[in-house]
Amino acid sequence: MGNSQSHAGQRFSSRFLPEEQAEIDRLFDALSSEGLGSSTSPRSFSLQALKRHVGEALPAEMVTRLFEAVRRVDGTGKSKGPSERVSREQFTVSMSHLLKGNAEEKSLVVLKMISATGGPVEAREVRKFTEDLVGSVAHVLNYRQKLRGWTQKQAPGAPSRVQVLAAQLCSEMKLQDGEKLVGPQRLDCDRTTVEDWVFRAPHVATFLSVVIHHGFPLLRSSLDLAPLLPEREVEQEREFASVLDVLSVIYINSQLPRTQRHHWRLLFSSELHGRSFAQLCGRIVHGGPCVLLLEDHDGHVFGGFASCSWEVKPQFQGDDRCFLFSISPSMAVYTCTGYNDHYMYLNQGQQTIPNGLGMGGQHNYFGLWIDVDFGKGHSKAKPRCTTYNSPQLSAQEDFRFEKMEVWAVGDASVTQLAKNSKSILDVDPAAQALLEVSGRVRHSEGLRQVPDDQ
Shortest CA distance to 290 belongs to which of 315, 250, 330, 263? Predict the structure, then answer.
C-alpha cells in the first residue's frame, strides 16, 4: 500500500516543473517545521501552522476550508480517514488537483471544501462556499495589491457584489434532475454534480487558483492575472470612481474575446466628460471594441459590449459577438439569438429616424437605448429583446441615469491612437479652404473629441 501511494504521489508530482515542485516542497517544509516532537515521525502540518503562514492574506474561513479538504485526500485521490495534520503526499496531490488537474480532480477537492461529511448537502452550504470563494478572491487581490487600478468600492445599500457574483456562479450548477440550485433543499451533491459545475462555471476553478497562488502564496509566476482582471487606464490619471468594482469587471471581462481581456481604457465618463451626447459620440466613434454601462436612478447597473467601432450612421452595425449584460441587482450576460442583426445603432441629426445609441431590438423598442437627450433611455423587452434574448435591464422601462461609462477593450490600433491627433484639415489650411470653396461642410466637426483644458 505504501509503495502504491508513493508511486501515485510521484505521478502527481510529475505534473510540476522541477522548479515548481521545489517551491511546493519549500512551502511544505516551512509549514511542517514545527514537527511532531520526534525526528522519526513523518513531517506534516496543522491548521494552525497554515493560518500562521497565510496570515491576513486570506479570510480564516477559506483557509479552514482548504485545510479540511487537503487533509482528507490521499495519493489515490480518494477519501482518507480522519487526520489532524496534512502530509507531504496529501499536500502535493491536492496542489496538483487544484492547479494542474482536470474538472474531475478539481471537483474532488471542491466537494470536500463544501461539505466535511461527504454526504448530501444543503443549497445554502453550496452558496456559502461560493460566497467564501468569491470574497476570498477580492480579499487576496486587494491584500496583495493586485487590483490593477480597480477598487472594491460598494454602493451604500446595494446588494453585495460578492453575493451577486456568487449567486450567478451557483446558478450554473445543474442538479441530476436538470433543476437549478434554488431554495433550501438538500442536494445529492455528488462528485458528478460538482464536476459538471466546475466545467460549466470555469470561474470556480480559476478563483481557487487565485486563492492558492496569491493566498499561500505559491507559484505566483505561473498565474497571469491579465486575462482575469484587465489593467485599468484612465486619461492623465484623473480621479474617477467607476460604477464597476473588481468583481464585476472580472465577470464582464470573462465574456470578452480572449484577445481583448488584458487592458481597458476609459473612452467616456459622464462624470469626467459631462452629460453630453455629442461628447459621447466624439469619444467613442472609431474607438474600437468597447464596453458601455450605465447606472440608472434606481441603482440598476447594466450595459453592453460593442464588438467593433461605433459609427454615426442610420443603419444597424456590429456583429454577433456583441452582447448585453446586467451587473446589479443580478449578474447575467445575454448573447445574440440570430433572430436579426440589430446589434448596434448610433445616429444623430436625423428627423425621420431615432437619434441616440441603441443595442438590440428595433427602432423605439431597443433592448438598451440612450437618447440623444442625454440622461434618458429605455430598455424594452416584452418578454425578451429579440436580438439578445435579454429581459428589461433597467428598473423602469423608461429610465433616467446620471452615470455612464464607455471602456475600450484590448490594445488600441494605430487608427484609434491617431484619432486623438489633429485632422489633416487642421494642419493643412489649403485643404480646409478647398473644402469650403467647394461648398462642403466638415461633418466631423460636431463629433470631434473635445480636448481637455485641465
Answer: 263
Task: Determine the pLDDT at residue 124.
Answer: 85
Work out whether strand 86-87 and strand 44-45 pair parallel, antiparallel, or are unpaired.
antiparallel
174 forms bridges with which residues in the sheet? 180
Direct distance between the N- and C-terminal alpha carbons of the chain, in angstroms, rounded to an integer: 73
**Cα separation, 62 vs 129, whole angstroms:** 9
CA distance 169 to 249: 15
Give this prediction's pTM. 0.85
Q: Which three cell numbers stand for residue 262?
A: 488584458
Q: At what angle do helices 88-100 and 2-13 cross, to 10 degrees?
A: 40
Q: Within a 10 A sphere around the Cβ of 351, how many other Cβ atoms?
A: 5
Residue 109 contacts residue 97 (beta carbons within 8 Å): yes
Give a three-class secondary structure readout of 124-177.
Answer: HHHHHHHHHHHHHHHHHHHHCCCCCCCCCCCCCCCCCHHHHHHHHHHCCCECCC
pLDDT digits (tens, 9 = 90+) for 119-137: 677 788 899 999 999 999 9
Pairing mode of beta strands 263-269, 231-233: parallel
Q: CB count, 10 Å around CB of 185? A: 12
Query: What are φ and ψ of residue 126, in 5° steps?
Result: -65, -45
Question: Rounded to whole angstroms, what are the CA distances from 127 to 61, 67, 131?
Answer: 14, 19, 6
- In the structure grid, which three cell numbers stand for residue 105, read together? 480532480
DSSP per position, 308-363: S-B--EEEEE--TT-EEEEEESS-EEEE--SS----EEEE-S-SSS--EEEEEEET
Q: Which amino acid is at 9?
A: G
